[in-house]
Fold:
Amino acid sequence: MTARKILLDQLAACNDKNAWFVSMKSALAGLTAGQAAQLPSSGGHSIWQILNHVHFWTERYLARFRALPLAEVKDNSSTFFPPASAAEAAWQEACTRFSALMAEWEKSLAEAPEAKLEGPIRPDAPDTWYFAIANMLLHAAHHIGQIVTLRKVQGSWDPHQGVS
Structure:
């Protein structure tokens, strides 16, 4: 199995195919906008804020992969932004946008020349794109676990989605 194939499998696992952990699609399935926007009583971020954060970094790395200009990021905490509206339509749009972003990553990864994937993410960086994409997917998997945990605390988790 090639490194590209492994990354494509991990991309699917983070997006919509349950594997060793549930996908983002399963982690968000059946969640209402109100549940997604609910802040944990112990502090921290809402599920929606976590999804916004994962989307932000996944989109940013896709832009970098495509050699598009990037805006400066002041700090990581700003990427956990709350929803502009807690309406159900806005929540569904956020979920759809993430899924579409992952489909764009899948297309870009599948079509990328091997030399690009083996090359550095920036001229001054030692990390290859293979390494960076693997870490980006680990980042998504970490936050998917947080979302499932928050849903369990809320009582909104459906164990039929893959984790009891």
